[in-house]
Protein 1
Amino acid sequence: MDIRVEDLGPTRKKIHVVVPENMVKKEIDGIYLQLKKTAKVKGFRPGKIPRQILQRYYSDYVREQAISKLISNTYGGAISEGKVSPVSQPRLENEELTEGKPFKYSAVVDVNPEIEVKDYLGVPVKARRIRVQKNEITARLDQLQNLHAQLKTTGEERVVKEGDFVLIDFQGTIDGKPFKGGKGENASVEIGTGRVSMDLEKGLVGARCNEEREIEITFSEDHKERELAGKRAVFQVKVREIREKVLPPLDDEFAKDVGSESLKDLEKKIRGELEEEKRRQINRELENQILDFIIEKNAFEVPRSMVDRRVDTLIQELELNLAYRGVEFKASGLDEGQLREQYRNRAIREVKSGLILKRVAELEKVDVAEEEIDERFEEIARRTNQTRSQVEAYYSKNNLVENLKAQLLEEKTLQFLLKKAKRAGTQGQ
């Protein structure tokens, strides 16, 4: 087999393959032999059909099958012999297949660019100081208070106000007609959150228990039910019960209920959590500074196929985030073509970052040990409330172990670069 590799650019190659005539003949003979056992031609018994008769009826089929098998059987050897490592599916071109002659085809593939990566050690970075403000601790305490709040039914003289939980019966109509999902009883609405509808919640403010009101709302353009998107509806609403949120006092007893020895100890614990969050955020900022610096110092092209795949992933992540919020991508009003264009620069940067980190890891001999993969499995298990074996089984079944290893390698390489960076002072926060 004759192999020739043609450079089409820094990230693309064309592999020319010539399959010798003896391999072509063997493949064609094998297909005809199989056909002889299974083909049905009027006037001939199965297994007794002469080859020239089979050629008359099946020559096109045999040609297509032979081309497919010859490419399939030789492509792996061709890229190995040509020392090509594709990062995309091949775009194939072939000449006509003629028995008694060599068969020629070519495969165009994307490849990783050859990058040396310079100036990656001692990158100048600026870090913000870690500073936790008193109001941040107060805000976190408020969140804890709200999580442990109790709901208390109010008297009939009390009107609905912001922060209340209201039980309502409702019936909605559009153009005077009821619609699916527009009726409910004893539905709970938290006033002021917008989780149900800001129009509905505002319309309930000031109402008393057992009061009936007519409230108009306009559904959002990205409503999860497409037939309701942007529509105006009228709701007949009856207030069944008003419950006010009663916050626990911020004292030592409350602190003990949430696992601390005292309120002072709880505040200290919250400060530590906030500092750790800020430390992780600052580390991410420093890592981005390092990557921006190295990308600027090392200009190179990236394979279009890798960028396209990264854009696909970003759009899939967006679709998942919308789904978690109950919004279908098609009903969101977002244009996929515009999104792909908006994501392209980000995708190029992320692909370049990955290639740079991979090359630095090779140069500095950064590697991921099996114990580190095991530790990450343990961490994922704790975070997702699963057993270690369940997590490992999921990653193995879905062929995600290598992806996890690649992620860990990038993290380790970034930490290596961060340790070698030059901190040029700190910035205030």
Protein 2
Amino acid sequence: MSDLERFGTGTPDQDGCLTCGDVGVPVRVITVTARGAWCEDRSGTRVEIAVDFVPAVAPGDVLLVHAGVAIARMGSVDL
């Protein structure tokens, strides 16, 4: 089991909204940028996520993502 699977098993590129399947996908923050954060899902796919609704995002945080936007911090994992 990967360290993200304990938070759920979806991936941003295969699961999620598409107006509105209503799935939150857990991702791990790899790096924070001026525009958002580069994150990795349980399958290793990296995507840039908007983090405007979650303050003080840091590498190692596990975020719950819906439609490319972080909606909650779930915890953190070691990188």
